[in-house]
Amino acid sequence: MSEPFDHLLEKYATLVIRLGVNVQPGQPVVIQCLPEQAAVARALAEEAYRVGARSVAIKYDDPHLQRAAVLHAPEETLGVSSPFDLDEVRSWRESKPALIRLTGNPHPGLMDGLDPARLAKSAPTDRIGELFPLISTSHLAWTIVGAPTPGWAASVGVASVAELWDAVATAMRLDEDDPVAAWRAHIAKLKGRADALNGHAFDRVRYQGPGTDVTIGLAPQSRWQSAESESSDGVAFVPNMPTEEVFLSPDWRRADGTVRTAAPFFLATMGAMVEGLELELRDGTITGARADRGEAEVQQQFELIPRSRHLGEIAIVDRDSKVRETGLVYKDMLFDENAGSHIAWGAGFAFAFEGADGQTPQERIDAGLNQSNTHVDIVIGSPEVQIDGIRADGSVVPVTRGDAFVLDA
Question: pTM for the full model?
C-alpha cells in the first residue's frame, strides 16, 4: 500500500462523510455494509460523530443468509422483507438520515449453481420499492462507495487487499495532496459537460461501435446530470464515489437497436457474473437478450421484475476516467460503470427528469420516466464506440470521438 492504512482510511472517511454525504450537525447516519467491511464502517461512524452526527447505525447484510433462503425457505417467503425493515425505510422520509452503502462483493461465487428462478425471487424488491423513491428524487443525501475485502481483491485478480486499496485510492482521488479540492475541481468539470449537453437540447443519442448500434430518445423533461446532487433540505452530496459520468433518464418508450457489453458485470440481485451480454431493443423495450455467461439470471430478472425491460439511464464516460486509469475490471458496477459509457435498465431518476418530483409513479411513466424496482448499469462504451447527439431536425453533433469528450458548449 502506498501509505499507511490508518492514514488512508482516515482520508477516505473524511472524504465520504464531509463531501460524499455531507453529514450535517444533528443528522442521523445509516451505514449499510457486509460483515467483512466492518472496519471501514466503524471509521465512517467515527468521522460522522466527529462532524456532529446525532446518531450512527451500522446495518449489516449477509449474503449467506440469502443463499440459505434460496436453498431452503418456503417459496412464498422469498424476497419478503419483515414489517420492521419496511417501516424503518419508510421512517427515513421524515428523519432524512445520511445514507451510506458500502459495495465490493467478498463472495462473488456464493450464488453459483442456485436455481435462477428462486434466486430472482429472493431479491428484496419490496424494500427496494420503499427505498428507491427516496434516493431517485434525492429526498435524502446518499452515497455508494467501495470498501475492499480479501474476497473482492481475489475476484479482481490483484495480489492483496492492499493492492486493491491502492486502486480504490486512485479512483477516489485519495492520492491527491488535497482530495476534497481535487473532487471540487472534478465536480466542476463534469458539471460543465452536463451544461454543454443540456445546452444542445438533443432529441436522441446514438451509441455506435463494435456490437453496438442503438439510438435512444430523450424526453423534453430529460436533463443531463453529473457528480453532485442536492437533497430536499438543500444539502449538496455526491451519490457515487467514484464517479466519472454525465447521465440522464431517457424516454423509456424510445430506444431501438442493439448493444453488447464491453465489460463483464456482477448482477447483484442475482449474485451472478454476466459476460458478453447482447440486447435487442425495439420501441423502448428489450425484446431479446443473450449472454456468454449469466443469461438465465438476466432473463429471470426481466421476467419477474415489472418494467425491467425498459431503460432508466444513459451515461457518458470518456478516457479521463480515474477508474479506467487503474486498468482493473472490478466486477462491481459502482466502479465498472465509471470506466466506460453505459446504459441501465430499470428505474429512472426523478431528479434527472424535470417536473417528476411531484408526480405519482404512474404519472412519471406516462411522461416517459421509467419506474421499476431494479436499476442495472451495463457498460457498452469503449474507445471504438462513438456517441452522437441528434437534434429534432436530424442534424448530428459529435459528443465523443476516440473516447474523448469533444462536444463544445
Answer: 0.90
Element holding 241 (H helix, E strand)? strand 240-241
Q: How far apart are CA 201 and CA 203, in angstroms?
A: 7
Is residue 85 helix, strand or coil?
Answer: helix
* CA torsion angle 189 193 199 202 (round to 10): -170
The domain segmentation of the chain, as residue ranges, is 5-171, 193-232+241-405
pLDDT tens digits for range 263-278: 888 888 787 889 999 9
Cα separation, 182 vs 110, in Å, equals 37
DSSP-assigned beta bridge partners for residue 281: 257, 286
Residues 216-250: b if buried by 16+ CB within 10 A, e if exposed: bbbbebbbbbbbbbebeeebebbbbbbbbbbbbbb
> Given the C-alpha cell 493492492, which residue does it identify?
163
- C-alpha 315/C-alpha 245 separation (Å) is 6
353 strand-pairing partners: 222
Look at residue 357 in the predicted model and tell me its pLDDT. 86
- Measured CA to CA in angstroms, residue 173 lies from 55, 146, 166, 169, 179 at distances of 28, 13, 10, 6, 6
How does pLDDT run across 60-119, given as a tens digit for each residue? 999 999 999 999 999 999 999 999 999 999 999 999 999 999 999 888 889 989 998 899
Q: Distance (Å, rounded) from C-alpha 387 to C-alpha 6?
A: 42
CA distance 22 to 43: 15
The rounded distance, in Å, linking the Cα atoms of 145 and 47 is: 15
Query: What span, in angstroms and rounded, lies between the C-alpha atoms of 215 and 30?
Result: 39
3-state secondary structure of 401: strand
Cβ–Cβ under 8 Å, residues 202 and 397:
yes
For residue 395, name the pLDDT band (cuts at 50, 70, 90): very high
Q: Which residue has the cell 492483496?
A: 160
Task: Tell me which residue of 389, 378, 385 sits closest to 401, measured CA to CA.
Answer: 385
CATH class of 5-171: alpha beta
Burial (CB count within 10 angstroms: exposed 0-12, middle 13-18, buried 19+), residue 296: middle
Largest CA distance in the chain: 58
Confidence of residue 400 (pLDDT cuts 50, 70, 90): very high
Nine-digit cell at 321? 476516467
Decide: 259 and 211 in contact? Cβ < 8 Å.
yes
Per the DSSP assignment, residues forming a β-bridge with 231 are none
